[in-house]
Design goal:
By secondary structure, the chain is an alpha/beta fold. Helices cover 39% and strands 22% of the residues.
Length: 187
């Protein structure tokens, strides 16, 4: 089986360590523990890793967050990956920092990356891992918060949270969406 694992983020050094780039950060951690590297290809950076008998195509779109759907649609078609084998990792300010929530479908929740993916693939029925950022910011400062860096305390907790996200991705691919939701949501 082949899976498309998409980590959402923005390209460029100014965004590298921002909260909004947690999707990229999760895939970078996955690549590091798998001893693989990304190569720049059409619409994004791509890496492939084998997990048991499955091939996981890791995608970090280079289209900027708000146009992520172009990259998702292109790589789904290029690699002939069915919708049920697509998993998108995205940041979520409605969840406490480091919380993981896995869903098989849902609204974009105001997230422009998810909104564009749904528009480009024609449905909101694709799996996603929402990685909590928390919402410790004053009213009206949401953009500054998500485009800001993690706190020192959050950075200390990051390795453990990234490991859980990686384990959730593997569970999705090896045991299915329901297993992943039941065993990794709210961890």
């Amino acid at each position: 089986m082949k899976y498309l694992i998409v980590g959402l983020g923005n390209i460029g050094p100014e965004y590298r360590n921002t909260r909004h780039n947690i999707g990229f950060k999760v895939l970078d951690a996955f690549a590091e523990v798998s001893n693989i590297s990304f190569s720049t290809q059409r619409y994004g950076d791509i890496a492939q890793v084998r997990v048991k008998n499955n091939v996981l195509v890791l995608l970090k779109p280079s289209t900027y967050m708000n146009l992520s759907g172009e990259a998702v649609r292109y790589w789904m078609n290029k690699e002939n990956i069915p919708l049920e084998n697509v998993l998108v990792i995205v940041d979520d300010i409605a969840l406490p920092f480091g919380a993981i929530r896995i869903k098989g479908k849902g609204s974009d929740g105001g997230h422009n990356g998810l909104k564009n993916i749904a528009a480009m693939i024609g449905t909101q029925n694709y799996a996603r891992i929402r990685f909590g950022l928390g919402n410790d910011f004053p009213k009206g400062a949401q953009i500054d918060y998500v485009l800001g860096n993690f706190t020192e305390e959050q950075e200390k907790l990051m390795p453990e949270r990234l490991k859980i996200a990686i384990d959730a991705i593997k569970a999705f691919c090896l045991s299915g969406l329901t297993f992943a939701m039941n065993n990794y949501s709210n961890k």
